[in-house]
Amino acid sequence: MRIDSSLREQWKPEGDGFVAEVPSGWMQGRTLYGGLTAAYAVALGQTQVSEQRSLRGFTCQLIRPINPGMMRAECRVQREGKTLSFVEVDLMQDKLCSRFQLSFAVPRESNLTIEAREKITLPQADDLEELPYIEGIVPEVVQRIQMRWAEGM
After folding, report:
1. Which among 112, 116, 122, 100 has a CA at the least distance from the CA of 45?
2. Which of 83, 85, 97, 148 could be joined to 128 by an S-S link, Cβ 3.0–4.6 Å?
3. pLDDT band with cut points at 50, 70 and 90 for residue 9
């Protein structure tokens, strides 16, 4: 499974909500990797607002584990103004598993200028040691993503 715009296409309308299949191989301990859980919620929320609005605020409560298999969602636009939309997404497997509050806004001009900090220089990713997957020690999700040591131990 790829995590990009195709994630929006994973959601299918069903009844008064939506359903998607949670793939195996993305577990972090006894639940779906939190980043993928959030990506599912944001992808669904984005389908409820204008394409010109982008995610500006995000709050989540990870209440119960999400396991591989079917997941149901309820998605509600709480308020939509000229430039800002508030969307709530609940993810469920029998019971409520996660709740997200999302804010999407239209880009706007600003007179605020923030100076960038000094750029740090890191080696190229391919030159760094990759974190290996060690079954039983490293979470299952590490098989699906690449992590490399850049600084530190």
Report:
1. 100
2. 148
3. confident
Quick one: which H or E segment has residue 32? strand 31-32
Instruction: For the chain, give the number of residues.
Output: 153
Residue 144 has pLDDT above 60, yes or no: yes
Helix/strand/coil percent split, the chain, to 5: 15, 35, 45
Query: Could you tell me the pLDDT band of residue 5, with boundaries at 50, 70 and 90?
Result: low
pLDDT in tens, 63-82: 999 999 999 999 999 999 99
Q: Are 27 and 140 in contact (CB under 8 A)?
A: yes
Provide the Cα torsion 39, 42, 43, 44; round to 10°: 130
pTM of the model: 0.80
- Cα separation, 95 vs 99, in Å, equals 11
Q: Which of these, 13, 51, 50, 20, lies nearest to 36 by C-alpha position?
A: 20
Residue 41's nearest CA partner among 52, 29, 27, 55 is 55
**Angle at the Cα of 27 from the Cα atoms of 131 and 88, rounded to 5 degrees:** 120
